[in-house]
Specification:
It is a single chain. By secondary structure, the protein is α/β, with parallel strands linked by helices. It has a five-stranded mixed barrel. It has a five-stranded parallel sheet with strand order 7-6-8-9-10. The chain has a four-stranded antiparallel sheet with strand order 12-11-13-14, with no helix packed on it. Helix 2 packs parallel to helix 3, helix 4 packs across helix 8 and helix 5 runs parallel beside helix 6. It catalyses: Exonucleolytic cleavage in either 5'- to 3'- or 3'- to 5'-direction to yield nucleoside 5'-phosphates. GO terms for molecular function: exodeoxyribonuclease VII activity. It is an enzyme of class 3 (hydrolase).
Length: 431
Amino acid sequence: MQKPLTLYELNCLVRDLIDLKMRDSYWVQAELSQVREVSHNCYMELIQKDKASNTPIARAAAKCWRSTWLLLGPAFERITGQTLHAGMKVLLQVKAQFHENYGFSWIVEDIDPDYTLGDMARKRQEIIRQLKEEGVLELQKELQLSLFAQRIAVISSGGAAGYGDFCHQLSDNAFGFWFETELFQATMQGEGVEKSIIQALNAIFVRQDAFDAVVIIRGGGATSDLSGFDTLELAENVANFPLPVITGIGHDRDESVLDIVSYARVKTPTAAADFLVDHLQETYNRIEEASERITDLVQRQLQMEKLRLNRLSEQIPSLFLVVKTKQESRLDRFRLRLLTASRQLSDREKQRVDNCAQRLPEILLRKIEREQHRLQLLDQRISSADPQQLLRRGYSITLYHGKSVRDAAGLKSGDELETRLSKGVVKSIVK
């Protein structure tokens, strides 16, 4: 068995081998899984995923030293409009390095921003294609912004200069229009952009009747790290939102997906305020124009009516004579008809009275005969009910204190009774 090597000696062999066999630099395509900057040095974790399963199949560490990073970082951000972040596809020029104390790593010598721009554009186009397939890409464009859009829900960072500029531009507009704004706080930079804005949209959705429009603004500082506005989920939420969404996220590069699906896209928060002011001014102008048209129409109508009245007033005397003649003729006809009808009615009533006078004696005689017969019948009924008649037939009536006795149970011993007969009265004592 040969003499074992120390770890330092083994690592030195690896270092020498790499320095000997891998002297060149290599361009490598990879995805960033982690990026951190420490003391102006940039440390990256590179990853490659399987296209079918999306699981990692290769990993490596990469470093960009301060002297290189201070040049590459700003240049990459200026061209792409974004900083390096996890999930980004990059094309790096790297050189192998093995340090006996720190191990192996790839040293980044250059970054190709055009590759990243191409990948970002590809992702953006893929999202746009999917939105078109879902039929939601143009939904916001089909909405109508209220003519009086004055109640505005604002999604922004509360401390951002852009939010202050937006509010100032609205409140100090040259026309003196009134606007009511309510801030819904959201993260507007970094990995939390998508989730934060969606949460703000959900909060606005619950109270959608309280607002006329939604403004998403981001202003001030650099225009880096805008990838959060190029996501499918955020685009779907905005596209399907029931209120018009206006974006002013302050960047000059190509439109983000959020800009494309929104109702209207402006460049800056100040421009978003100007958009709302101009929209209200346009409504005001339309009202003014309508008012002028209405006034003009009313004046013309009044003039026409005045001319018509003048013509009518000229015709009134002749028309009055015609009407007077017609009415006098009509009254004469009515008078004649009334006189004739009165005479006919008087004759009919006189004839009726004569007929009644002739029939009255006969009617009275029959009435008297009927009443006499009825009186005879009543007299017979009264006679048949007379108590004296009952007494004459052999019946008697027993009285106690002047009242007839009908039940012996109501008497007691010693009571004095009076019995009336057909002839005479008998008094008796109860025993």
